[in-house]
């Protein structure tokens, strides 16, 4: 778990409603880690947010698929693709 540190002033707030059981679980986790509830929650939110962003924006290929992709890029473009690229876009 990485700790979030910054030299900038923290001025943005995030409020959430939760059940007493959820709060108790978070309190216990923060206590066991020796950190504040705010810092524990922020660390976990940031880590999960970065993971979710990575999962939704990164493309991963196996080594075999990547080699096939590179080979496809090296092959000449099909005639239909060349013709399509010569057309003026309809959105302009």
UniProtKB/TrEMBL annotation:
**Listed GO biological process terms:** regulation of DNA-templated transcription
Q: Which residues form a coiled coil?
A: none
Keyword Endoplasmic reticulum included in the entry's annotation = no
Signal peptide positions on this chain: none
- PANTHER family reported for this sequence: ABC-TYPE TRANSPORT SYSTEM, COPG FAMILY HELIX-TURN-HELIX PROTEIN-RELATED-RELATED
Low complexity composition bias: residue spans: 1-13
Could you tell me the keywords of this UniProt record?
A: Toxin-antitoxin system
Annotated region (Disordered) at 1-20
* Protein name (Swiss-Prot/TrEMBL): DUF1778 domain-containing protein
Q: According to its UniProt record, which protein family does this protein belong to?
A: Belongs to the TacA antitoxin family.
